[in-house]
Design goal:
The protein is an alpha+beta fold. It folds into two domains: 5-99, Nucleic acid-binding proteins (OB fold (Dihydrolipoamide Acetyltransferase, E2P), Beta Barrel), CATH 2.40.50; 120-421, BirA Bifunctional Protein, domain 2 (2-Layer Sandwich). The protein has helices at 57-65, 113-118, 120-123, 127-149, 188-198, 234-255, 257-263, 267-272, 283-292, 305-315, 367-376, 385-389, 405-413, and strands at residues 5-6, 18-30, 34-40, 45-51, 71-80, 88-99, 153-154, 160-161, 173-176, 179-183, 200-208, 221-230, 280-282, 319-322, 345-350, 355-363, 398-404. It has an eight-stranded mixed β-sheet with strand order 7-11-12-17-16-15-14-13. The chain has a five-stranded mixed barrel with strand order 2-3-4-6-5. Strands 8-10-9 form a three-stranded antiparallel β-sheet, with no helix packed on it. Strand 5 (71-80) and strand 6 (88-99) form a beta hairpin. Helix 4 (127-149) packs across helix 13. The protein binds adenosine-5'-triphosphate and magnesium ion (3 copies). Adenosine-5'-triphosphate (ATP) binds at residues 209, 211, 217-219, 222, 224, 355-359, 402, 404, 406-407, 418. Adenosine-5'-triphosphate (ATP) is lined by residues 209, 211, 217-219, 222, 224, 355-359, 402, 404, 406-407, 418.
Length: 433
Amino acid sequence: QEIPTIQITDVKHYVNQTVRIGVWLRQKRGSGKIAFLQLRDGTAFFQGVVVKSDVSEETFEIAKSLKQETSMYVTGEIHEDTRSDFGYEMAISGIEIVGESHDYPITPKEHGVDFLMDHRHLYLRHLKPFATLKIRNELIRATYEFFNKEGFTKLDSPILTGSAPEGTTELFETDYFGESAYLSQTGQLYAEAGAMAFGKVFTFGPTFRAEKSKTRRHLTEFWMIEPEMAFTTQEESLEVQERYISYLIESVLKNNEQELDILGRDKEVLRSYTQLPYPRLSYDDAIQLLQDNGFDVEWGVDFGSPEETFLAEHFSKPVFIVNFPKEIKAFYMKRHPTRDDVVISADLLAPEGYGEIIGGSERDTDYEYLKTRIEEQGLDLAEYQWYLDLRQYGTVPHSGFGLGLERMITFVTGEEHIREAIPFPRMISRIRP
Ligand code: ATP
Ligand code: MG
Ligand code: MG
Ligand code: MG
């Protein structure tokens, strides 16, 4: 009978059977009589055991000489192993080396952050990046599922753009056949055009911002999910947002238990964030609350990390801050019906110091008002004519928001720094590997 070649995640179906698995060696320990091989195959991690008295002399010699990250096929019987977290191990009877490895740089000793980031192409193989990026994958999967269930159409916005949606200070400029083009900072304006055509749309793609300051929360290349909904008010949009966040957390709790354990993330704390609704606090009240608690902030400022951390911690769950000052928000945000100084906007702040994960608003529908706002902000009106067209041909109330995927990942995984949330981070001082 032929020996099946399987993946580690499937070993539970092969207890007491002999299988073959393509693996890499993570670590090895043992004595003169037994070798314990820590193995991974990209689906999971488990242990193989080579017992000298049970295998040929040659196989035991190979086992003893294996180096970290050697790739091979191991053959052996699967046994239940209640002592390990994984629950199974392999009694190895044969080893076929595929690719040798010598002097692998990431040894079991502690390495500094810069070293690990310089070796990111290899570090991806290790436990923590593996767990974090598996959760990234789940958040992306659950995002498509959520928006498809809710009747959205995915409509991609361009990456190369001819104009700057929200001003020019953080733009990456590039040459486009002799003209200036910019890497997209947001797909928002295109998503609005999409909503007028498809009702409910979401974009999902990379966005670029030349963030000049170094923080734990800013990348220069990050991925954003931007839903936009026609015939939708701000309050209806907030309800979609909280349902979405709750759905993402539930999906990870359901499908990534192993990864959350690897990262040491408290599942009960995460579960508490699935309880809706999230509190809504006006910007005015937020300023008051901050001042009452000793923060030196005045009405009109945007929040920094300490203020965002305090506000969400105050409620021990994600919190919406609504109706920000007009002057610190983008030109397209809808005027407040009774006040001239604020716009119908909302930021969703995550607890535990993870900061702003969503920014959104209702969009203004008035052609003349938007034209004035574009001019007031010193933007080139000609570049926005196509956008203003949307207000000329059957404008409707509409709202949308942008979720930063990597912010959401740090929040769900409990990672301290956003560089961990993307396979190859781009930051002010890092563009390699
Ligand atoms: P912040 O205030 O944290 O700088 P922002 O208000 O400039 O964020 P928005 O323009 O509202 O960001 O973008 C929508 C979302 O994109 C944010 O809520 C956040 O989740 C994410 N985001 C923004 N900038 C970055 C960045 N540089 N790196 C990673 N994610 C980001
Ligand atoms: Mg910013
Ligand atoms: Mg902000
Ligand atoms: Mg924002």
